[in-house]
Each structure stands twice: as C-alpha cells, then as structure tokens.
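An instance as discussed:

___
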Amino acid sequence: MDNSTPPFDNCVSSAASRYLFLSWFIIYLLMLPLFLFVLYIGFNKWKKPQSSASGGLNHSDVFTLNMVTMEIISVVGTCVACYGFMKLNSEITSFGGDTVITTMTGQTLFHSLTCVERYLAVVHPVVYLRLKRGGGVIIKNISIIFVWCCFLVCTVAFGRLSQRLCPLRSDPPKAWRAGRA
C-alpha cells in the first residue's frame, strides 16, 4: 500500500466498494416509491374532514410523515453521494454522505416520539386520551420543531466538523484516479 495515500481512499477506489455503494444506492432508490406512497396516503388522510371515521391524522401519522420526509432527504443525499462516487468527485460524495448521516439523527428522534406516543396509548390510556384532545397537539408540534432543529444543527455541525477533519478537495485522490482506469 502506498503510504502517501490515506487508507480510506484506497478502500473507496476498490471494485468491491463500488459494488457495495451501487447496491446501497439501488436499494434506497427502490424504496423511494414507497416513501412517496406513504406521503400520498398521509396527505389524502390529512385532507379528509376530522368528523369522518378515518379522517384526520393522529400523532403517529404526523410523526410518520415527518420521518418519511427525512427518509426522502436521505434518498436525495444517497443519490448525490453515488453521483459523486461514480464521477470520482470527493467533494460531492462527502456532501451526499454528510446528508445521509445527519438524517439518521432525525429518523431516530421521530422513531422515539412514535414509541413514546404508543407507550402512552397502551400503558396510560387516560393520559393519552386527555393529551390527544387537549394540550397534546402543542407538545406534538413543539417536539416536531425540536427534531427538525436538531437535524439542522447536526447538519451544520457535522458539515463543519467534516471540513475540519477532511478538507474538501477539488481533485480526486490518487487512489480514485488509479481506480478509474
């Protein structure tokens, strides 16, 4: 191994890593119609009047729609990273990868909110029904805003940290150029 090339660059330029990255991209791309379908169903449910039996969104539906939106951002980041990877542009790859990594924070928090909501519904049904009718909407909205703020803060912080640890390069690393041939 060439000591002047960082080990990560050698790993990225291997044929195996290209196949793994491409398979990851294809899996995410195949999930995109599912994410869009969930958004479509959610918005149709949102449009229905509250008085109908299946009308309106409950708290879990709102958390799910926000989580799916976060997943779509992750798919876009994966597409950008794959494009940069195939074009051997470390700047684009880094930006797409950073986007995917920072969406994990929001996804985890939305999963946690859904779990807390289900926990209240099953273990404390009286409290859950009281919150569902009254102040629970305010708590839900504040929680959602908090998660999106955490996502934005993580995005900015991770981007700055990534720039400090791995300065972006306009030219591909030596191992990438060698792997292209």
Remarks:
- The chain has a mean pLDDT of 78.
- Residues 7-180 form one domain.
